[in-house]
Amino acid sequence: MTAASERSKLVYFFGAGQAEGDRGMRDRLGGKGANLAEMTGMGIPVPPGFTISTEVCTVFMESGGQYPAELRPEVDEAFARMEQLLGRRFGDEERPLMVSVRSGAAVSMPGMMDTVLNLGLNDRTVEGLARDSGNPRFALDAYRRLLQMYGDVVLGIPHDRFERPLAAAKEAAGVEHDSQLGEGPLRALVREFLEIIRRGGRTFPQEPHDQLWGAIAAVFTSWGSRRATHYRRKCGIPDTLGTAVNVQGMVFGNLGEDSATGVAFTRDPSTGVCELYGEYLVNAQGEDVVAGIRTPHPIRRNGDGTSLEERMPGTFSELAQVCDRLERHYRDIQDLEFTVERGRLWLLQTRTGKRSAAAAVRSAVEMVAEGLIDEATAVGRIDPGQLQTLLHPSIDESASFEVLATGLAASPGAASGQVVFTADEAAELGEAGEQVVLVRRETSPEDIHGMTAAQAILTARGGTTSHAAVVARGMGKCCVAGCKEIDILPDGSAFSVGAVTVRKGDWITLDGSTGRVILGRVATRPSELQGEFRTVMEWCDRFRRLGVRANADTPHDARQAIEFGAEGIGLCRTEHMFFDEERILLVRRMIFAASNSARRAAIDGLRPLQRGDFADIFRAMGGRPVTIRLLDPPLHEFLPHEGDDLSPVAAGLGVSTSELRSTIARLAEANPMLGHRGCRLGITYPEITEMQARAMGEAACDVAAEGVEVALEVMVPLVGVARELALQAAVIRRVIDEVLAERGAELGYTIGTMIELPRACVTADEIAREAQFFSFGTNDLTQTVFGLSRDDSGKFLQVYLDEAIYPADPFAVLDEAGVGRLIRMAVELGRSARPDLKVGICGEHGGDPASVAFCHRAGLDYVSCSPFRVPVARLAAAQAALAESGDAGRRVAEERLAAR
Amino acid sequence: MTAASERSKLVYFFGAGQAEGDRGMRDRLGGKGANLAEMTGMGIPVPPGFTISTEVCTVFMESGGQYPAELRPEVDEAFARMEQLLGRRFGDEERPLMVSVRSGAAVSMPGMMDTVLNLGLNDRTVEGLARDSGNPRFALDAYRRLLQMYGDVVLGIPHDRFERPLAAAKEAAGVEHDSQLGEGPLRALVREFLEIIRRGGRTFPQEPHDQLWGAIAAVFTSWGSRRATHYRRKCGIPDTLGTAVNVQGMVFGNLGEDSATGVAFTRDPSTGVCELYGEYLVNAQGEDVVAGIRTPHPIRRNGDGTSLEERMPGTFSELAQVCDRLERHYRDIQDLEFTVERGRLWLLQTRTGKRSAAAAVRSAVEMVAEGLIDEATAVGRIDPGQLQTLLHPSIDESASFEVLATGLAASPGAASGQVVFTADEAAELGEAGEQVVLVRRETSPEDIHGMTAAQAILTARGGTTSHAAVVARGMGKCCVAGCKEIDILPDGSAFSVGAVTVRKGDWITLDGSTGRVILGRVATRPSELQGEFRTVMEWCDRFRRLGVRANADTPHDARQAIEFGAEGIGLCRTEHMFFDEERILLVRRMIFAASNSARRAAIDGLRPLQRGDFADIFRAMGGRPVTIRLLDPPLHEFLPHEGDDLSPVAAGLGVSTSELRSTIARLAEANPMLGHRGCRLGITYPEITEMQARAMGEAACDVAAEGVEVALEVMVPLVGVARELALQAAVIRRVIDEVLAERGAELGYTIGTMIELPRACVTADEIAREAQFFSFGTNDLTQTVFGLSRDDSGKFLQVYLDEAIYPADPFAVLDEAGVGRLIRMAVELGRSARPDLKVGICGEHGGDPASVAFCHRAGLDYVSCSPFRVPVARLAAAQAALAESGDAGRRVAEERLAAR
């Protein structure tokens, strides 16, 4: 073997039922190329072409723009095969071949070069195409599109420099759509576009091969773009992965009324219903459907005669068969792009279909029933981050409200917000904690930050596969798309629907499940969990090892938690019971007590109230474990805040406002997060701990006397030194045992601690000697490990995310390298001192899928999260368990990768 | 061998030149007992007696008050030997034996039982003693003292119940001192004291052996007292160590004008001058000298005929010989108690003498010269914590001031403060940050918290070995004792000196080196470092491995640091240069800049100023390394604070006050310690980092051009993620390299980071790839590891210390178990990634001796502390190095233990 023969191929041909690649070669061919090869091999009609391997990208990047010497001959050979198959030649003035060039990495990412279509056209071949097609208008339009795309994407001329003359030409011609422009205006536009490129200091290459190599270089260059590089750094994708380049013969959906282009899903991506779903446009090219420029028609019969099924029944039937084959082959919902050229169907792409949470759940369960996949695969296929949308509220139909307009039901759910018209406004108000609905003609990738910040998205144009719809579904966010009734004023200050004007800042409500746009705020109610959802959750419970509990402070939360499948309460914050109006007065009296006896009196006034709360929670939980945390926040949180009116508070306390003011000042802290709080309160005011322990003990006895089991776990917060816990545990044990003796009752209870300080982590062995359980308070732990105040990080967090300093907000996704390392250390040290130590987590991270997976790997016993996140945690826990169990695990990982 | 014969002795006899123990048996006999045995063995006159071993204490504590069966026969046997030697019998009505009982652990500690003297007296033996001594007044006074001490110490009757009738009796008799009371009043007092004990519900045992066993039990019980237990927990002394009990035949210094009692030091404990030093009282018993009730006379000739040397020349000469022998034997300054009974000298105790820092240094150096000890021992013997007092200011004699009175120069140094009259007041004001001078008639162990809080202590009574003097010297605190001229008003509101009245809150200044009490505040100046000090420091530099640098922000600090022996600057805080009046305006302009260009203009205005500062510091340091930290504090620290007048600031900035107010509000942070500060500033405003890097580079070039070497180390603060450092280092490197290119200069510089966040510790390997050095910022690291704000901990820190939750304030003494563990981890990870990583510490802990020792053990390269702490750090570093090097190390450890 020589060195040359060791080198693998650089170019992989596909066409006419034969392909050099297959779907297993995703790393080398990218997702798009691998699937084009796979489809070709299956005998599905795919225009012939070839894929340049990702290895070429790596050479290109490392060499500063050089290609391997073998590349050009391999490309020439593949080109020759393509020309032969299509009976056309690149640059031929009679029957010119046109190709598309597209990027295609193993994982799709932002910042990569868009498609360039119609490569091969120039001032001469355009005339040949006009003659050959018998349609000069089509040929000129194709050339115009090439100039526009190539100018923008390859030559870097700003997009709007082309859009402005195009809009002017349509206005001059008095037409609405590009496709209505005649030959004359198109010819003028071609000249103008060439001039625009020239004025931009660039040259449009007339030689087709120069066009081709320019486009190939642009794809590879885009791999190194700042945006793509940042994205890879954030996601931990190696730069050496590289992108492939797909070069494919053009087919045209814009050759007349017998041509069309469209997008199809093998099942409804919104509902999961098992029927062909999609949209198409007659006489349109390429991105017209996805870009949302014209509102497309449905593929399936809709009764008004515009559907593909009605207009091209043969093509429809062929497409349905292809869809069926692809879904059975890939065993998952497929998202296809197709073009009909003069009645002939061509498939341009297939990939795993993005879907709503509802569709993910329904299709997964149905595919198990159909025997397509097994249960582990089904569980692995559902995105836990998206699942939560299923649990989101929907419009309360019993409320009265005014439907302003109806658009397409693009992404389910319901949400209200103040209307804004730009992504920046949405981001700004969203960050300020406002609820906003982003209203746009159509959206583009530049709007992502605003879509993220918005509660819901409304667009005037575009279909259910438009950018807005696809992105919103991915985000699990409510979206109404293509609502043609709304008219957005040019100055972006309002939109009108008939006579009604909705101004910036007015409230509207969207129902993404029906497409309704509603004036004002409408009451919502939680979604009913469907049968498939319960089925998936049962499978999850079978697979997972981690327990899942909920954070719940009230009986209502406790009941909701059980409804969502929680196995206990991992965190019951007693201070939330103190903020009630009646109670806060008692708390304030406690703070203002001039004597120990007055303090004790105020505290004793709180006891029956706490006892009642605890009893109700014990009843709701019916024997499931309940972890109650002692009072945690600094006392000044119970006093009025700056700007509040002090006089009524002072009057209620029987002190002067100046006395009240001076107490507020005395209790104020420079860094309250690091101040007099947590067990430091219980150490300095043991009477508070005594009262809370007594209330817990009494409530447990009361409920046990009713025949309801009680599993009480008392949790001491903010322990940094083992002796803190020892002292507090002694008080708790003494008081509860006193109560049990008084009642003549027996009660098994445990005492443990929050681990939320780095010192607790590194001395966890000492602490475990005093603790029967640990519960990681990852919110506070993240704050102290990073030295980062959650309340203050807003000033620089975005910069940190943009600069890829933090891969994600560490308060949302657990930082494994730092916080995680301390957690692992604490688990290890803790279990070394007490092998049966129970270990859980009760920070916000307990409901974050990646963090749940970490908790599984770190050997925790359970996670605890807000009730609405419980199903997410159950799913994430199941996936984590599957991920480590061999084949099933690998399958899950592959499924998740393919779905990216 | 039988089990019984394996058991060690419980009782160790000493007397008449023979002893069963020696000084090597400190653990078993306690410090006092071991030394009594040693002295006896040396043939020094010691009243015979015996020591009950510490093992008995352990049995007593563990069994709840039982003694080993063998104890009583052993005590009886020792008692018999004592009676035989002294020719007296315990309880004998003719020639009664009297004994003292004293506690004595290996380490002395607060909360232990005081001495009980004169045990053996009762209603009958007192008459025998009267006859036998021929001095009924003496006998009655001895009995009165026994009742008082036994009643207080053993029976728990409050002290003042006895003091009140005693004072009344003196008033009735018209006398000042106890010793002036006649037989009649004493007989009445004896009756009254017995009645007081009875009324207190207790009985004074008339049977001498009952007295003895009661006193022994009291000693053991005091071992378990709350105060002693807390002290042990804080100091990490095991409870099983136990205390011994010393029972010793009484000798009397109060048998007339040929009797006396006193305290002597083998060298002056204040100056270290090698001459016998001490005080005594004629016709006095036991604690009279130490308690400061009467002002004693000097031992050495003082010219007025009151000295021991003049009044009892033979005894003086004998004492001087004993002192000489003891010092040569123990090879250290000895602190002795002696009694002269009818002309005969008895030694009652010897121990290592507590001394001032000056005395410690001088005596150590002189003892090396005398061949008594080697240099390692000399270095090991000096308390680093105390050393700092040597560097403290003294009175500026060129200032004009009014000397109000002169007392005894009890502890050197000079300090000013507001007068307070109780320890509680001192503690309260001291904690509030006020400077106070505690003025007391005399002090007692109950006053310790006030003495700790005070700048200086002034007493009206007591000598240079009084409680106040001894404690103040131990604390390294200025003290003037026995200032008889001052008259403290009974209501504790003021003191008067002649016609001058000094009220509570008035300022006075004390000079503890001369005994002067000065009205008002007097300027002070730093002490001149003497020859012996330099010698010791040179020895330290020879022994230590750790480098010692200083934290210095100004050229003045830098020069001072070099004066104190700093080898470089470990922390130069650039923000301190920003607070200057002229500069803060530029900083504020930077904050208020409406545009990038305005911000850059403001920042560029700061650059020449910073460049000048840096250049002056480089010049001062002459080639020694200088670590400059980038801007660290949150920007709002540069804006006016609450309550400041905003209008001038607003006018200076050219903004409205409401604009200023809103910017202040916008920049305010919930937890500034965890906010937008440190490298987060440099990441979000790279222009600040650029300016600082340019100023450093230009300053270095300027100074290098003058022929002065520059060793620049640039330090990035608050790094939690390696990429933060990578990004900032890239900016620094680019800018400095630009400057060097412009100047055509060469400069070796390094870039490193503060390690002050837990996340930095656990990801130190990643960070070390970007850092050439680490410097632990232990102030902030302690805050984040404990989740404890230094500014807010005051509310509960005292409780935490009292409850022994923290063994010490973690901001003063590095927490080894938590913070230390993370430091060790960071060092290990850091060096694993970069073996030549330089590692130092620049928090306050860098000047704390225990923390310096930890830094040595943790393998750090250097510590950096405030200039005044540099000598402390040099000494502590030397001791740490000696401690780990075999024999020398053991010797150091032993010396330190013996000195406790």
The CATH superfamily of the largest domain in chain A bears the name: Phosphoenolpyruvate-binding domains
* Terminal-residue CA separation of chain A: 39 Å
Q: What is the helix fraction of residues of chain A, given as a range?
A: 40-55%
* Name of the top-level CATH class of the largest domain in chain A: Alpha Beta
Oligomer category: homodimer
Q: Largest sheet of chain A, order of strands side by side?
A: 15-25-24-17-18-19-20-16
Cα shape of chain A? elongated
> How many strands appear in the DSSP assignment of chain A?
34
Q: How would you characterize the overall build of this protein?
A:
The structure is a homodimer of 900-residue chains. Chain A has 900 residues and is an alpha/beta fold. Chain A folds into four domains: 55-249, Dna Ligase, domain 1, CATH 3.30.1490; 260-352, 2-Layer Sandwich (D-amino Acid Aminotransferase, Chain A, domain 1); 393-525, 3-Layer(bba) Sandwich (Glucose Oxidase, domain 1); 544-634 and 669-865, TIM Barrel. In chain A, 46% of the residues lie in helices and 17% in strands. Chain A is built from 35 helices and 34 strands. An eight-stranded mixed beta sheet of chain A has the order 15-25-24-17-18-19-20-16. In chain A, strands 27-28-29-30-31-32-33-34 form an eight-stranded parallel beta barrel, surrounded by seven helices. In chain A, strand 27 (547-551), helix 20 and strand 28 form a beta-alpha-beta unit. The two termini of chain A are 39 Å apart. Mean pLDDT of chain A is 90; it is low at 1-6. Chains A and B meet through helix 25, helix 27, helix 28, helix 30 and helix 31 of A and helix 26, helix 28, helix 29, helix 31 and helix 32 of B.
